[in-house]
């Protein structure tokens, strides 16, 4: 193993956590990602935020909430991060984009995922949803890109 500039060992790593489908589990998911990456990792803040969004979606919008469970998987190195949440699925369509107003307190999770993740997607099979995203350090300095869909703002290059 090599030393990482972010306070972690440099080999590729995987962590998996099985969580109860309640709101407290979202905080545990954030802590796992934060601990795995280390606060100095350049992808830390965005990965913690996006983990919170997809874990919350599992608890609120799938059968994983209210007594169910979901699984968080984190794969990472000093150069990249891939995070996935597998939930118990639901009878509803997997992703319903809905318009939000400036006063809404929710409904922006997938917009954040679209704006911040370098790649993301979902797989729906065998009654489960697996929502994942990837981020790469070498793409952080990329030029601003216009978001897809009906979003009105530009992504800011970091």
Sum this structure up briefly.
With 158 residues, the protein is an alpha+beta fold.
Q: What are the main properties of this structure?
A:
single chain; 158 residues; alpha+beta; Heat Shock Protein 90; five-stranded antiparallel sheet; 26% helix; disordered N terminus; disordered C terminus; serine/threonine-protein kinase
| CATH-scheme architecture | 2-Layer Sandwich
Rg calc: 16 Å
Poorly predicted residue ranges: 1-11, 149-158
Question: Which CATH class?
Answer: Alpha Beta
Distance between the first and last residues' Cα:
29 Å
- Give a count of the beta strands, DSSP E runs of length 2 or more: 5
Looking at the structure, what is the overall shape?
globular
Q: What's the domain count?
A: 1
CATH superfamily: Histidine kinase-like ATPase, C-terminal domain
**Helix proportion range:** 25-40%
Strand order of the largest sheet: 1-2-3-5-4
* CATH overall fold name: Heat Shock Protein 90
The ordered string of helix (H) and strand (E) elements is EHHEEHEE
Structural class: alpha+beta
What average pLDDT do the residues reach?
80
Q: What does the largest sheet look like?
A: 5 strands, antiparallel
